[in-house]
Amino acid sequence: MDIHAPHQEQHLESSDMIRDIVIGMSDGLTVPFALAAGLSGAVNSSGIVVTAGIAEIVAGSIAMGLGGFLAGRTEADHYTSELRREYEEVERVPEREKEEVKEVFAEFGLSKKLQDEIAEELAKDKDKWVDFMMRYELGLEKPAAGRATRSAITIGISYIIGGIIPLSPYFFVADSTRALYYSCVITMICLFIFGYFKSKVTGQPAISGAFKVLVIGALAAGAAFAMAKLIDGK
Amino acid sequence: MDIHAPHQEQHLESSDMIRDIVIGMSDGLTVPFALAAGLSGAVNSSGIVVTAGIAEIVAGSIAMGLGGFLAGRTEADHYTSELRREYEEVERVPEREKEEVKEVFAEFGLSKKLQDEIAEELAKDKDKWVDFMMRYELGLEKPAAGRATRSAITIGISYIIGGIIPLSPYFFVADSTRALYYSCVITMICLFIFGYFKSKVTGQPAISGAFKVLVIGALAAGAAFAMAKLIDGK
C-alpha cells in the first residue's frame, strides 16, 4: 500500500481545516449571539448592540486567530526541538535509546528476543529510528508546513462569519428587543444547520449533534440575557 | 520501568488541566478586555461597559465550558466506538489486521521476517493487539475518565477569572475612558504574567512567550477600540 501515507496525510490536513472552521464558527455563532441577547435585555437601542457586537467580533477573531497561529507555531517549534534531541540521543546514548524502543514493545507483551531484534534492526537506519521514537515514544506527528498561518486565517474568518449572522438583524431593526427576536430565529436555525454538518464531518450522530450545538447557544444567550437584566435591575 | 506508564498518565492528566486553564484564561483575559476597550471608545458610561462585559463573560464561559465538555465527550465516544470496531475486526478478519500491523513496521524499514514475527506474537493477546492498533495504527489514546466534566469546569472558571480582571476598573470608575486606562495597565500586567507562566509550563522561552501573549491582547483591544470608534463616527 504505497498510497497509504500520503492519503492519510491529506486526510489529516483537511480534518485540520475542518477542525479550525468548527472552532471558529461554534464560538462565533455563540458568543456574539449571547452578547447581543444580553445587551438587548439591558439597553433599548440596537446601535449599542451593533457597536458592542462588532467590537466583540473583531476582538474574538483576532484573539482566536492569533491564538491559533501561535499554537501552530509552538507545535512546530516543539516538534523541531524534540527531533533535534532524538537525533542527538541516538548518536550519544544509542544503548539507552534501544532500551526505550524495547520498552515500547514490552508494554504490548512481545518476547524479550523479539524486542531485541526490533531494536537492533530499527537502529540500522537512523532516520527511521528517530521517526519511530518521535511517533511512538513521544507521540508527536510532523506538523504540516504553513499550518499555523492557514489555521489562524481559517479560525479568524470562521469566527467573523459566525458572528455576523446573529448581529445582522440589529443593523436593520432599530428597536433592540424586536431585533433580538429575529436574531434568535436566524441564529437558532444556523446553529442547528452548523451542528448538523459539524456532526456529519466528525462522524457523530447528526441530529443529536445539531441539538447539542443549539442547546449550548441557547443556554449561553439565555444566561447572558438574564445576567444583563439582573445587573441593570430591570 | 514499572512506574513508566502511570507516571506518564499522571503527567498527561495534569497537562490536560494546564491546557484547559490556558485555553480559558487566554481568551478570558483577551476578549472581555478588548470588548471593554472597544465600548469605552464608543460610550462614555462605565455602566454599559460593565453590562456588556458581564454578558460576554457569562456567554463566553458557558460557550467555552460546554464546548470543552462536548469535545471531551465526543473524544470519549469516538474512542469507545473505534475500540469496539477493532475488537470486532481482530475476531472477524484477523489476517487483514495482521497485515495492518506489518504495514506499521514496514514503514520503519523492518525486514519482512521480523514484521511477520511481530504480527504473530502480538496476535496471541487480543487485548494488547487491540491496544496496539488503537495507539499506533489509529493514534488514539484512552481518554481519562471524567475528563469532559473536569475540562468544562476548568475552562469555564478560568475564563471567568480572566474576564473579571480587565472589567474590574469599570466597577469603580464611572468615566469609561478613565476606567480604560486602569484596565489597560492591570490587564497588560496580567497578560504578561500569564504569558510568562504559560510559556514556563509548556516549555517555551518564557520572556518571548510573555510578550507574544501581551501583543495578542493589545492588538485585539486596539482593533476593537478603533473599530468601535469608526462605527460610532466619533
From TrEMBL, chains A, B:
Keywords: Membrane, Transmembrane, Transmembrane helix. This is VIT1/CCC1 transporter family protein. PANTHER family: FE(2+)/MN(2+) TRANSPORTER PCL1. One of its GO terms (molecular function) is manganese ion transmembrane transporter activity. GO terms for cellular component: endomembrane system. The chain crosses the membrane at residues 21-42, 48-71, 152-173, 179-197, 209-231. InterPro entries: Ccc1_fam (IPR008217). It is found in: Endomembrane system. It comes from Mucilaginibacter straminoryzae. Signal peptide: none annotated. GO terms for biological process: intracellular manganese ion homeostasis.
